[in-house]
Design a protein that fits this description.
Shape: globular
Distance between the termini: 8 Å
CATH topology: TIM Barrel
Helix content: 40-55%
Radius of gyration: 17 Å
Strand content: 5-15%
Structural class: alpha/beta
Largest sheet: 8 strands, parallel
Number of domains: 1
Length: 268
């Protein structure tokens, strides 16, 4: 298993973050990670300059694990589906320059109060269409549930709903340890239940009460999760660290470096 880093640790700062895409990529490389998952909100114009982004990654010694793509309407507004799919197609144009890079679609989010079931139904159709586009273009597609405000994929029943609404041949899954435990689910059990859908894994820590913690300081049992993935599920893909704790909010670069050092003691 190889370790990468997600850029949301910087993105979550909102207006408090005043750095650049280059600085984030350099910080992840300097921390010792070998891969990166960057969001469309952090790409900083490189989505129109694949060659330039490739050079940036090469200089930092990073592989392009995944491109995390979200939209303001959260894939649950029927009349916005074509617009979202057009944007997804443009994202595929970008990552097509990086064979094997996964397009990770953000969690379905209900901004209009249409209800979880309807929101999941709409998102499922959009995700399947994205998966068909990806299959035709050689771009793997996955979905990433979260537990943030408005998410409709948090509980076990909701996970089962989005899995049933999406074609496993077209749409894989990015499990996130922190979001799973915040949804009051057992992490190893959830990973096992949907094992055939796993594209790569987000490692993040939180308490059972839902508070974000630095990796190793919460209730996710990161070493146990990694052992379960390796020994029980035979998983040998990417582990992508992500951090949303208060400590990370004060110094994202320092926080992800601490996490890399923590993971170095677990992952050979």
């Amino acid at each position: 298993m190889k370790t990468g880093c997600q850029t949301f640790t910087w993105e979550m700062l909102g207006d408090r973050w005043t750095g650049s895409t280059e600085q984030v990529v350099e910080a992840i490389g300097a921390a010792g990670y070998v891969g990166i998952e960057i969001t469309n909100n952090m790409i900083g114009g490189y989505d129109r300059d694949a060659a330039g982004f490739g050079r940036l990654l090469s200089s930092a010694g990073l592989a392009f694990v995944a491109y995390a793509f979200s939209t303001p309407t959260g894939f649950t507004v029927e009349e916005k589906a074509d617009e979202e799919l057009a944007a997804i197609s443009e994202a595929m144009d970008f990552i097509s320059a990086f064979p094997g890079t996964i397009l990770s679609l953000g969690c379905p989010t209900d901004h209009r109060g249409i209800g979880d079931g309807k929101a999941i139904e709409i998102a499922g159709r959009i995700f399947n269409r994205a998966g068909e586009m990806g299959k035709a273009r050689g771009v793997p597609v996955a979905l990433h549930p979260s537990s943030h405000h408005g998410s409709v994929v948090v509980s076990r029943a909701q996970y089962e709903g989005i899995m049933a609404a999406t074609d496993p041949a077209l749409v894989k899954w990015v499990p996130d340890t922190g979001h799973i435990i915040r949804g009051a689910q057992d992490i190893p059990e959830t990973l096992s239940l949907f094992r055939d859908r796993i594209a790569y894994v987000h490692l993040k820590d939180a308490s059972k009460a839902g508070e974000w913690r630095m990796m190793g300081a919460g209730d996710c049992d990161i070493p146990g999760v990694i052992a379960h993935l390796r020994d029980e599920l035979g998983f040998d893909g990417w582990l992508v660290g992500e951090e949303e704790s208060e400590e990370a909010g004060r110094d994202p670069s320092a926080a992800v470096k601490v996490n890399r050092q923590y993971l170095a003691g677990i992952v050979a």
